[in-house]
User: Fold these one by one.
Assistant:
Number 1:
Amino acid sequence: MLAFLLVTLEFIMTRGSVVDPDIWWHLRNAEYLFQHHQFPRADMYSFTVVGQPWINHEWLSEIPYYLAWRAGGLGGMDAVMFATISLIFLGLLYLSYMETRHFKAAIMACCFLTFIASVSFGPRTILFGYLYLVLLLVILQRFRQKGNAPLWLILRKEAGDVLMRSGGRHRKWESWRSRALPAWQRCLLIPSGLASSFIPSTWRFARN
């Protein structure tokens, strides 16, 4: 019931929040992608640097908003924004509860944070980055507390970086590889690593 109240609060705070002017050029970028089946390679909007090489690093986050806009207009975009923000705060609620083991305190903390974060509510592509960050924290917290978590859901590079930095020694990384994941899940790290090849900036960095 309290979790439902938190979602209700998110619904109230996100209503009428489609005021971010950046959403329109994000929609145009996604429209270009769907129409031409390729990423724009040059700046098409700026007067001073038009035609200069440019990489759209937010293309994947633009697609849900574009599809929602095509299906339901502003209401569709508002629904995507509400669903994403709700998932973010439900993830934060889970994290808070797992740390405190006090559900009411976790609810109060998330409600308080909702009012603080409401100034940034809007159809922003960075919301999907926040959602992924919360998922990353949930997985790592479960691994820290129980020693077992679906780490294969994390991209291979990020899983390695986080564990190597937090562990500090190569033997901990080897221990994680041999203990935390069954063989079939370790195999899934390969396609998750290959998924990074769909990020346009990956190819630019590889060439450099």
Number 2:
Amino acid sequence: MRPGIAKRIVFTAVVLICFFLQTAIFPHLAIARITPNILVAAAVSIGFLNGPFEGALAGILGGFLLDISSGGVLGIFMLVLTILGYLAGIVSEHLYDEAGYTPVLIMAVSDLLYGLFVYVGYFLVRGRLNFVYYLAHIILPEIIYTCIVGWVLYNFLKTPSRRLNAL
């Protein structure tokens, strides 16, 4: 099996597992009704570790799964996660952080952008204008929870990613 194919199979499995965790497990582990956005963390981690192309692929798959499970407009989450995974890959080409703090910072910014997108797309267009409440009670706690889980995910993916990239 070619190394590129093996890498994509592994990262496809990672995204599928993260989707399962985000939709089936973490809703039961919610803290104050806040759950982490593991698919953002997965797309950012994969993009940061492997470059923009793999980050975009992870975003496409994760976003597609979110789109079909949410029952909303097909392609919205796919577009957002693709852009976030791609941008994480672009940033990784210019920065490297062995300790893993840069990817966590990128996850925080990505989850902030994701939360702003959800606010505009699902709340603002319906006339819900209380942005400060949404920011303080939804977006910021989700960023913290996502960064904690994302840091664990990033460190879990770091070694296999290096091995697959060395093939």
Number 3:
Amino acid sequence: MTIPRKVTVIGAGDIGVGWAALCASAGWPVAIFDLSPATMERASIEVERRTRALVALGRAPESIVEQGLRELQRATFFSEAIQDADWVIEAIQEDVVAKQKLFVAERHPPASRGRSITCARWGVFPSSSRRRFRAMSSAESRPRCGGSASIWCCAA
């Protein structure tokens, strides 16, 4: 297994905060991004609280958690969040159009060569979503998902 150089979580609600805390507790560099400043403020507090709770429960070593928290990036811009990320975890609201727009972002598509994407809480099958994203990309003359990019969907 390859350790990611950077994990990006897009969406700072409860699910996104949970992913960010879990990755930070493993000592991985994490960037978290949300369009809402209020949500980002809450996320900053919650990620720290949840990672420290893992230490208190004996589920994560304190030194590793502290390293993850030091490297936690609260991104202001989408492009900043996904820059140099090996793994992008999408945790935005349940809106298929919003998710499609995210994956064919005009200037900074998260699905690029060598980057893995995880879609949290999505009730659409990966095969149909991948076809939709590629169809949208082709129709709009945008770059398609690179051959080595991976898209994983974790429907709860």
